[in-house]
Specification:
Length: about 725
């Protein structure tokens, strides 16, 4: 603890974290020390008192504060909040994997109580004053960055405004948190199904029917986001594909549409109380993009560049549908089916055949080995697993050079009821420097419903699953290899429009022939995937860039426009209007896509553009690994030291500059877009059907020299 801290504060912190007020540096624990034997009554019984203790600790610090001791007071506040998160690590994480609805609801209540504490902390004018004083007293860059973070949070929470307005802000934020939690919970708890007759069901791979139940006429199949792609790629019936997609796009229903509409209204009121015209301006003020105009410039430029290719892709696939004798209009539900057929026709790539080379029991150990070499670490399996389920894999991470234990991870990859719909990385406990000089080791997990095993067969990853898994593992490394001094600056607690960049960079490995061969082993023979098949797979890399990127533009623009100055009354109507303009895939009439677009109510509100923004940095980072450095441990260790370890202790531009040894730039990203735009786009003047709605002539070249994201390298100063 910092010298000069009052005994009252020391006592409060000691009670909060269950430790003595004075201590010598402790030896690192042999286990994470987290109790996963959870039930709903236990979560409720633990959570309330712990949050109350944190409030008492905060009150003690504020009551005894002094202008001369502002830095010490801020460090005490940081310790109090980090200790609270440590103490309720299991309770906070349980919402991502709880099969018991009562436990999931209790975990949600706990998360909301902690969110309310955090909101009150940020809005507290005394804490804001402490942080401003600490900024002047900071002795090093870490302390300055910590103080800046608290000052920024206080400013954005209204800690500096007059009391009546501040009280209104706190009230509105609590209402908003309740709406967000209810929206997400409605998606998680949805159990929608569609009916398939016996003929349609027989056409599906057995794993796709996992969780389905027999009926008098055939099968009742659960509709899930993580199952959408494979269902659409393997279901011959266009009608069944349409029904599956429509059911998925009705999840959340009108209740979630109302929640979203109400949330947008609350966000607008909050933003205006804080002096911003709308929520988009408020959110981006603290991000790299800084203004919605800069974010839109990137999104719109991507859409203009890729629209002609997207139109050409859809036209070619629609022609395939007509050649099949189906004269009905091409629907969004047809896209994945005909993309799969085109890959088989043009490149002899059958995704179901490719899966045979990627059994989970080969992929996961090979992935760990690859990260070991690249980042200079070692994974040590812990058995028996002390986790929330016996099928969770638990590992300690050690530094390869010193052998020192630096983190723990859990891999919860098998399908299980109650888990998150899509793979996600959950930072269970952040790392931080403790008062006795020791380091609290971080704990993190990937939680997601991975591929289901077919009868008598191992679970098999398809290539899309591999890209996702490699992406999430990049987040996992960011949340465990950081060495940031403070929890508030740990790991992925960076500017939000940079947070995806490290993981997006690592997706590139899943398109490298040497890597795919190294992690593959055919079921039965154990042979690696043949080089010619890999070459054909890589040849499909840009086959769907047009539809992919124009859809990303749709999602990003929807999010930005939803939170802009003229927020619509009906978010679904906005979705459909933008879809007609930004992507050639037709809307699904009669659905409610805004009711299940989780990012806008799950922490990415006015931030979805960040996936494109961070991709600019991701491709620039990847340039250091190209030209023979793909598995170069020297480059990998530099990446670990300069990008992963600092976390939010430095601004993203500085991280990238130190790693690359130069200023960041968009050239690598535009090369990526160029490779996509150049593939299979008609060379003739665009026809009427290729003209982008809302544009003059459909020619994407009009913006190709404007480089609207050249200023992306400016970041925040």
């Amino acid at each position: 603890m910092h010298r000069g801290m009052p005994l009252l504060v020391l006592a409060a912190l000691a009670a909060l974290c269950g430790c003595a007020a004075t201590a010598t540096a402790a030896a690192p624990a042999a286990t994470p020390g987290i109790d996963w034997s959870l039930d709903a009554p236990g979560v409720d019984a633990r959570c309330g008192p712990r949050v109350a203790q944190a409030r008492a600790a905060l009150h003690a610090i504020v009551a005894a504060r002094s202008d001369e001791r502002a830095l010490a007071d801020l460090l005490a506040i940081e310790e109090a909040t980090a200790a609270l998160e440590d103490d309720l690590a299991a309770e906070r994480a349980a919402g991502a994997f709880a099969a018991d609805p009562a436990l999931a609801e209790a975990a949600t209540r706990c998360a909301m109580a902690m969110a309310a504490f955090a909101a009150d902390l940020a809005a507290d004018p005394a804490v804001y004053a402490i942080a401003r004083g600490a900024l002047e007293q900071a002795r090093d860059d870490d302390e300055r960055q910590l103080a800046r973070t608290y000052v920024e949070a206080g400013r954005r929470a209204g800690a500096g405004v007059e009391p009546r307005r501040r009280a209104e802000l706190v009230r509105l934020r609590k209402q908003l948190a309740e709406l967000e939690a209810a929206y997400v919970q409605a998606i998680f708890s949805d159990r929608s199904t569609i009916e398939l007759d016996a003929t349609d069901a027989a056409a599906l791979p057995p794993a796709v029917l996992a969780g389905a139940t027999r009926t008098a006429r055939g099968w009742r199949v659960p509709v899930r986001l993580e199952g959408l792609d494979r269902f659409l790629r393997t279901m011959p019936s266009s009608d069944a594909r349409r029904r599956y997609m429509e059911a998925l796009y009705r999840v959340g229903g009108r209740a979630n549409t109302r929640r979203l509409t109400r949330a947008v209204a609350l966000r607008t009121r909050i933003a205006r109380l804080l002096g911003f015209p709308d929520w988009a301006h408020y959110q981006l003020d603290a991000r790299m993009a800084k203004t919605p105009a800069r974010a839109r410039a990137l999104v719109d430029d991507i859409d203009r560049r890729l629209w002609p290719k997207a139109r050409a892709e859809v036209d070619a696939l629609a022609a395939m549908k007509r050649a099949d004798g189906d004269a009905r209009p091409f629907g969004a539900w047809d896209h994945a089916w005909y993309v799969e057929r085109a890959a088989q026709r043009d490149h002899a790539v059958d995704s179901e055949r490719v899966r045979r080379y990627f059994p989970a029991d080969r992929v996961v150990p090979a992935l760990l080995a690859l990260y070991e070499r690249l980042l200079g670490i070692r994974f040590e399996r812990i058995e028996p697993t002390a986790a929330w389920s016996p099928d969770v894999l638990e590992y300690a991470i050690r530094d390869a050079a010193s052998g020192e234990r630096i983190a723990w991870i859990y891999l919860d990859l098998l399908p299980r009821e109650g888990k998150s719909l899509m793979p996600a990385t959950v930072a269970i406990r952040d790392g931080r420097r403790l008062g006795d000089g020791s380091y609290r080791l971080p704990v993190s997990s990937i939680i997601g419903n991975g591929p289901a095993a077919e009868p008598g067969q191992p679970a098999l990853y398809d290539h899309r699953d591999l890209v996702t898994l490699f992406h999430e593992f990049g987040h996992l490394m960011h949340t465990t290899l950081s060495t940031a001094r403070f929890a508030r600056l740990y790991g992925t607690r960076v500017r939000e429009d940079f947070a995806e960049a490290p993981s997006q960079m690592l997706e590139n490995w899943m398109w490298q022939p040497s890597v795919l061969q190294a992690i593959s082993a055919e079921v039965g023979s154990g042979a690696p995937i043949p080089p010619d098949l890999v070459a054909r797979m890589v040849a499909t890399l840009h086959a769907t860039d047009g539809v992919f990127w124009t859809r990303q533009a749709l999602l990003a623009r929807f999010d930005l426009d939803l939170h802009g100055a003229n927020a619509p009354r009906d978010p679904n109507r906005l979705w459909f209007a933008l879809q007609r303009t930004l992507t050639p895939l037709p809307p699904l009439r009669g659905t409610l896509p805004a009711a299940s677009f989780r990012p806008v109510m799950g922490g990415y509100d006015a931030g979805y553009y960040g996936y494109a923004w961070s991709r600019v940095y991701a491709q620039d980072l990847f340039s250091a690994f190209e030209d023979g450095h793909l598995d170069d441990p020297a480059v990998g260790l530099r990446y670990r030291r300069e990008i992963l370890e600092p976390g939010g202790s430095r601004e993203p531009d500085e991280l990238v500059r130190r790693f690359l040894g130069r200023e960041p730039g968009p050239a690598a990203f535009y090369r990526l877009l160029g490779a996509g735009a150049a593939a299979r786009v008609p060379s003739q003047t665009p026809s009427a059907t290729s003209t982008k709605p809302g544009s003059i002539d459909g020619d994407s070249r009009s913006s190709s020299t404007s480089q609207p994201i050249a200023a992306v390298t400016g970041g925040i100063r």
